[in-house]
Give the backbone structure.
Amino acid sequence: MEDALAFIAGRYNYWMVIVLMVLGLYVTIARGNLIKKIIGLNLFQTSVFMLYISAGKIVGGTAPIATGTPGTVYSNPLPHVLILTAIVVGISTTALAFALIVRIRESYGTIEEDEILAIEHELERDR
């Protein structure tokens, strides 16, 4: 029993990733407000960032700078570099999504998904 608890407690970062991922997915799927959907997608995206950064860190590892000392354990910097790029892309897509939501609000007068669909169905019926 203690081994199981130690195993679970030793991987708390992965549990946090799972919690954030499920929460982000739930908010994205369950909410009809477009702003809340974008926030859910950002939560999901942040959980993926945490997963990659956790995988790139090695306990006891140091920065990958050649010191000449044999047997030195290094942490992999590639996940961190890739996540920096992903953060920039995520910010850009979030800004674009918010700009689209502003235009949707100007066109339909709402940002609720079900109201937008009702307006669309009404417009198609009137044609």
